[in-house]
Structures are given as structure tokens and as C-alpha cells.
Write a structure and sequence with these properties.
Pfam family, one: PBP_like_2
CATH superfamily of the largest domain: Periplasmic binding protein-like II
CATH architecture of the largest domain: 3-Layer(aba) Sandwich
Structural class: alpha/beta
CATH class of the largest domain: Alpha Beta
Radius of gyration: 20 Å
Helix content: 10-25%
Shape: globular
CATH topology of the largest domain: D-Maltodextrin-Binding Protein, domain 2
Protein name: PBP domain-containing protein
Keywords: Signal
Number of strands: 14
Largest sheet: 8 strands, mixed
Length: 342
């Protein structure tokens, strides 16, 4: 059996957010001690929840249980263990797995790659799909349709060259200049760290004009708000799943922006006068979107436990065979790359 280790409630300070989530967001059962429990990334929580539910219908000896990053303030990971705070974001999920001493967490969802500094050397990252990250704004925003990488960097540095939308190709509100209101998810977010890396910034370079509160939840347009001046990073897969495929929809009125003139999605999207979106066969534009804004997403396990997860996350495992389900949540299957370890 797996060597179960888990984070105590006070071991790591984890972000907590009490927002409404779909009824099927959490497993719907209290996992047994032998079940495989996962926490972490907001970006992949919906697709992993769906994969877990489908996998459990095969009646495996060890069920998969994926707990959302948001929902009730606390949850019980396994029978016999106390309640604990939600684990919000990829990095916090990985930290929870590493700090684990009680046997509650067996894998972490991650929308970022393995760190190369050695701090995650005891973990194995199973790739299972492709995603991308772009910027999103209100459908009636003052923003232009496209921004360059350098403009995004200036916006998030709060550079004097990018404090108003008309400085980067956007519009004024009549004759009045409109200040850009950049927004970032909380510090443990994999989408945050990936987006900043893609535009060439570190956390230390993020400017003081950026809204980066600890309660900011990634890929949630209702958290960004309805303001016409705001801008936020958004998972392309999550936006497609929510806005087009109507899965756990919380995109609000946000639409995705182009980078250097290249659309983040394939197909034609129509935006109505009230901000509704319509489209058919809308998918991640993996072929043409700038490569630095494309990423793989992962399920992370302890390396010592990897053999037990091969039938689930490995190249010939259950997850890699679920290409239609993965695509229905906006992600692109990665063929022979699925189940690859790092």
C-alpha cells in the first residue's frame, strides 16, 4: 500500500475561500483510508473531478477522490481524520503532499511544471493534457483585441508606459483616460506563476497597482468583477469549458484576448450585446498560439508511490484513455506524451 502522509491542519497556512460550487464538485463520499485523495489546482479541478467520477464507476479497489480548491471552508479528506482547510492552488497542493504525515493526501493537481531547484525531487509529475493561459477582460472592456507580451509585462509592472488603456491600443471613455486595473490570482496559484513567467516577470517585479489579494481565485470571472477596466490571466481550457461547454460556469462576462494577433482558440466565437458567448468546435489553439503561453498540466504523486498510480495516471492508464472527456473540459489530449513523468 501507499505510504500515507498528510498535512496537519496547522502545518501550512492555506488559502480558504467559501464560495458556491456545483453539487458534484467534491467526491460526494467520504474517502476510505485506502482511497487516493487529491487536492490543489483550481485549473484542473473540474476535469480531474470528472475523471475521478468516471474512474470510480469501474469499481476500482482504491477510489479516486478529488477535492476542490474552493467550497466549504473545511473538508474531511478521509474517514477518521479531522476537518481541515481547503487547499487552494497548485503550489499549495504540492506543499500539502510534501508535508503530509497523517495519510490524507495521495496526489496533487498541478497546472505548473515541476520545480528545478530540487525542492520537489521526491515527487513525480504525470502529464495528462495541454492548456494555455492568456489575458481576459470584460466583454465591453476598454482594452484592445490583442496585446503583445511586452505590453502585458508593462501592465503588470505598473509601468508608466501602460497605466491607461489608450497607451496600449485600447479606448478612452469618451475624452477621459481609463486606468488599467490588473488582477492576479493568489500567490499559490499555478496559473499565476505560469502567466508571470510567460510575460517575463517574477513575483518581485509585480507592481503596486496590481490587485493580488489572497482571496483572488484563478479562472473565476465573478472574482475579477464586471469592471470594464480590469484585466486578468485566465486558463484557456477553463474558459472554453465554462463559457462554451457550460461546465461549472463562473467566467462571468470575461472574454479572452489575443496575443500578438493570435487567437487563443480555434473556431468562431460570437459575443452578444449582453456578454453571452456562442461558438461551435471551439478548442485551444495549440498549433498557433505563442508557445510560451502553452503548458502541460499534471497529477503529482510521491515517487515512491508511482508504481501504484501507473494504472491510473501512467501512459497506458485510465486517465490517458479518456481523450473525449478531457477535451470536453477545454484541455487538449497530448497523445503519446500523456503519462510522461518528470
Amino acid at each position: 500500500m501507499l505510504k500515507k502522509m498528510v498535512l496537519s491542519a496547522a502545518a501550512v497556512a492555506l488559502a480558504v475561500c467559501a464560495v458556491q460550487v456545483p453539487a458534484n464538485a467534491d467526491p460526494g463520499f467520504t474517502p476510505a483510508k485506502t482511497d487516493f485523495v487529491g487536492v490543489g489546482s483550481d485549473t484542473t479541478q473540474d476535469v480531474v473531478n470528472a475523471l475521478a467520477a468516471a474512474y470510480n464507476k469501474t469499481k476500482p479497489a482504491n477510489k479516486l477522490a478529488s477535492f476542490n480548491a474552493t467550497g466549504s471552508a473545511t473538508f474531511v479528506p478521509k474517514k477518521g481524520l479531522p476537518k481541515r482547510a481547503r487547499v487552494v492552488g497548485s503550489s499549495n497542493g504540492i506543499k500539502a503532499l510534501l508535508a503530509d504525515t497523517e495519510g490524507a493526501y495521495d496526489f496533487a493537481r498541478s497546472s505548473r511544471a515541476k520545480k528545478t531547484d530540487g525542492s520537489e525531487a521526491t515527487l513525480s509529475f504525470y502529464a495528462f493534457a495541454q492548456d494555455g493561459v492568456t489575458w481576459a477582460v470584460n466583454y465591453n472592456s476598454f482594452a484592445p483585441k490583442s496585446l503583445k507580451k511586452s505590453q502585458l509585462a508593462n501592465i503588470y509592472k505598473c509601468s508608466g508606459a501602460a497605466r491607461y488603456w489608450d497607451q496600449v491600443g485600447g479606448k478612452k471613455n469618451g475624452k477621459k483616460r481609463v486606468a488599467i486595473k490588473p488582477w492576479l490570482p493568489q500567490a499559490g496559484s499555478g496559473t499565476r506563476s505560469f502567466f508571470l513567467g510567460a510575460i517575463g516577470l517574477t513575483d518581485a517585479q509585480v507592481g503596486s497597482c496590481v490587485n493580488q489579494k489572497a482571496t483572488n481565485i484563478e479562472n473565476d470571472g465573478t472574482k475579477v468583477g464586471a469592471g470594464r477596466a480590469a484585466i486578468a490571466p485566465f486558463s484557456i481550457a477553463q474558459w472554453v469549458a465554462q463559457a462554451i461547454n457550460h461546465k461549472s460556469d463562473r467566467h462571468g462576462k470575461l472574454v479572452l484576448g489575443k496575443i500578438s494577433g493570435v487567437s487563443p482558440t480555434t473556431g468562431k466565437i460570437t459575443v452578444t450585446k449582453k456578454g453571452g458567448v456562442k461558438g461551435k468546435n471551439i478548442r485551444l489553439n495549440a498549433a498557433d498560439f505563442p508557445h510560451q503561453f502553452l503548458r502541460l498540466v499534471y497529477n503529482v504523486v510521491r515517487t515512491g508511490d508511482a508504481a501504484e498510480f501507473e494504472p491510473v495516471f501512467g501512459p497506458t492508464g485510465y486517465v490517458c484513455d479518456q481523450t473525449a472527456l478531457i477535451r470536453s473540459y477545454g484541455f487538449e489530449p497530448i497523445g503519446g506524451g500523456c503519462g510522461a513523468l518528470s
